[in-house]
Amino acid sequence: MTSARTTRRRRAVRAVLATLAALTVLAAGLGGLVVWQNTYDLREEAVTVRHGGRTLQGVLARPKTGRGPFPLVVFVHGDGPVDATHDGFYRPLWESFARAGHASLSWNKPGVGGAPGDWLDQTMDDRAAEAADAIAWARQRPDVDGRRIGLWGASQAGWVLPKIAAKDPGVAFAIAVSPAVNWLRQGRYNLLAELRRDGASDTEVAAALRRRETGLDLLARGAPYEEYVRAVGDAQGMTAARWRFVSRNHTADASADLPALRRMPVLLVLAGHDVNVDTAETEAAYRRLLPGPALRVAHYPDATHGLVDHAVESSSSRLILTALCAPRSLFARGFLADQRDFLASVAGAGAQR
Question: pLDDT per residue over 91-139, tens digit each?
Fold first, then answer.
């Protein structure tokens, strides 16, 4: 006869096994969900762009079906060591564009993912020349419609997009996402916005502004990094390479180059929770320098600088879960669809000409 203790033990074991089985099924289900949600309706091809003496390692993402030639969106990154997919962040965009019949081209920044060079050695003119070479390469492909190549760029790309358009009169359209206009004013805006967000005191704000003025004085006279460190004490993440990059680019201002975009449809995308870029200044500059119906402005009040939904970005756990289980939902409502609609309208207008 089985004792009561043995019966309870067996029940406990069965309960543990049942729980483990349920967790295994749940884990398998979640794993399947993650795989499904991160599978995109695309054909991705790793490409090596060789043109003008440059070698760029990139990805060409085409619609799932069809041989083309497809209109092409050329991606221009923002700041930082960005790879061709932006760690997967671009794929929902590529899929949305593919549904409008467009291919997308992006590449690793120099020094990222084994690519030759160092992106911190580049000026905005260097980046524009790099993109112009990539466009020239793309025009040689039979699956790309060389008459319908446009640009997509975010943040720091605001200084690059109009330079590309000036170099290549064949560029057909541009999507500018959270673009800055003036490097120095943008930097001051960003500093003050972050200090306000973090609840800095008046004393802390004043100290930060004094430190900023010291840095600007040193940049203006071309001071070396070592002098900067001596002047400010704690470099606070400013490396020697970053100092060189800032020294080369701190005078950037898009105002002189923006008129190159007048001849094409432009979609300006602005976020309501942007602590990096003064969106009011950006919109005013674009409306002043790109007058007429070719400029369209899309506002996303609930978005951050990267056009991620503010509520999602504000929670680390929610951000991670959304990126894993619903990456298309990272972005502010309407962001993907509005860009797809813009591309469809551009394609329609091109077909009517």
Answer: 999 999 999 999 999 999 999 998 999 999 999 999 999 999 999 999 9
Distance CA 51, CA 165 (A): 18
Instruction: Give the Cα separation of 36 and 189 in Å (integer).
Output: 40
The tens digit of pLDDT for each residue in 220-267 reads 999 999 999 999 988 888 999 999 999 999 999 999 999 999 999 999
Structure tokens at 123: 């000026």
CA atoms within 13 A on the CB side of 49: 29
Locus of tokens 């996402």? 177
Which of the listed CATH numbers 3.10.20.30, 3.40.50.1820, 3.30.70.580, 3.40.50.2000 matches domain 42-182+254-352? Answer: 3.40.50.1820
Q: In what order do the strands lie in the sheet with 144-154?
A: 42-51, 54-63, 103-107, 70-76, 144-154, 171-177, 266-273, 295-304
Give the tens place of pLDDT for each residue, 291-324: 999 999 999 999 999 999 999 998 888 888 888 8
Q: What is the dihedral of CA 274, 277, 280, 283, to 10 degrees?
A: -110
Which residues 6+ apart lie within 8 Å of 253 measured at CB?
159, 181, 182, 183
Ranges of each domain in the chain: 1-37, 42-182+254-352, 184-249
Which residue's entry shows tokens 């200084």?
159
* Residue where the block lists tokens 């289900």: 29
